[in-house]
């Protein structure tokens, strides 16, 4: 299972967990606040619309969403967040990108560095791995829920540029500009979507064929995901299904 699709699935399951919901809402609220700085109308602000979609998917209350928008537009007072991209390497040379929204870079930077080092990785310099990734719309659909040929035809007709089966899901990717239309098309056909996000998809992957190393990589990604300032963590690991079964 490649890092982007498999990790997206793990995040999706964690976000659905009630124990994690408060943290998930807090992260999405930050995303909305930052997006709303460029305008509070989601019809004219695609980034805000995407953030609101994520909030609704996470069952965030409407008044919480509206409050975050007002904080972003300045109608309500609030903390100012800065967007920072951290790049580095995990176990076995896995490339990692960490997107953070923080109100204190002097706190967040050293904490991200410690997460890398604790799990056998290292924080790198700006641009060291960014070139290995490309921004894509990423949607996954459970393979048991749909006919592959039908899904392929529908997805390509709605602007997808690729679809492949990875484990128990079909992974559909598209240009970010086609993401909204693709998601809308699948929703209209009532096709159950497991993950839908704008993601940084790796151009190449590093295969992890050792269960112990795989556990360290997953533990590192989970540590990033649990950090309150981290919005997204992306990596280019590829864990074969038989190894993933041991890890799980």
Automatic annotation (TrEMBL):
What Gene Ontology terms describe where this protein resides (cellular component)?
cytosol
Where in or outside the cell it occurs: the entry states: Cytoplasm
Gene3D superfamilies hit by this protein = 1.10.10.200, 3.30.70.980
Pinpoint the TACO1/YebC-like second and third domain residues.
Answer: 81-237
User: Region labeled Disordered — which residues?
Assistant: 1-21
Residue ranges of every copy of the TACO1/YebC-like N-terminal domain listed in the record: 5-74
Statement: the UniProt record of this protein carries the keyword Lipid biosynthesis = no
UniProt GO BP? regulation of DNA-templated transcription
One GO term in the molecular function aspect is:
DNA binding
- This protein's UniProt keywords: Cytoplasm, DNA-binding, Transcription, Transcription regulation
The answer to whether keyword DNA-binding applies is: yes
Question: Which family does the record assign?
Answer: Belongs to the TACO1 family.
Entry's PANTHER family?
TRANSCRIPTIONAL REGULATORY PROTEIN YEBC-RELATED, TRANSLATIONAL ACTIVATOR OF CYTOCHROME C OXIDASE 1
Q: What is the protein name stated in its UniProt record?
A: Probable transcriptional regulatory protein QJ522_17220
Q: What is the lineage of its organism?
A: Bacteria, Pseudomonadati, Planctomycetota, Phycisphaerae, Sedimentisphaerales
């Amino acid at each position: 299972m490649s890092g982007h699709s498999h990790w997206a699935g793990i995040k999706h399951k964690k976000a659905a967990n009630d124990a994690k919901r408060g943290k998930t809402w807090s992260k999405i609220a930050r995303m909305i606040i930052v997006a709303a700085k460029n305008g509070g109308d989601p019809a004219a602000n695609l980034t805000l619309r995407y953030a609101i979609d994520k909030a609704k998917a996470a069952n965030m209350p409407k008044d919480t969403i509206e409050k975050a928008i007002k904080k972003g537009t300045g109608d309500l007072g609030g903390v100012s967040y800065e967007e920072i991209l951290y790049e580095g390497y995990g176990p076995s040379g896995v490339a990692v990108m960490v997107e953070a929204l923080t109100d204190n870079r002097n706190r967040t930077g050293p904490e991200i560095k410690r997460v890398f080092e604790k799990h056998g990785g290292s924080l790198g310099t700006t641009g060291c791995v960014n070139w290995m990734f490309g921004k894509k719309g990423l949607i996954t659909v459970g393979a048991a829920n749909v006919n592959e040929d039908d899904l392929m035809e529908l997805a390509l007709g709605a602007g997808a540029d690729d679809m492949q089966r990875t484990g128990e899901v079909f992974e559909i990717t598209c240009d970010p500009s086609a993401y909204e239309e693709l998601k809308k098309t699948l929703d209209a056909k009532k096709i159950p979507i497991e993950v839908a996000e704008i993601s940084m998809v790796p151009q190449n992957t590093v295969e992890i064929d050792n269960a112990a190393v795989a556990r360290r990589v997953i533990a590192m990604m989970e540590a990033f995901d649990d950090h309150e300032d981290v919005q997204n963590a992306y990596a280019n690991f590829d864990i074969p299904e038989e190894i993933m079964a041991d890890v799980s």
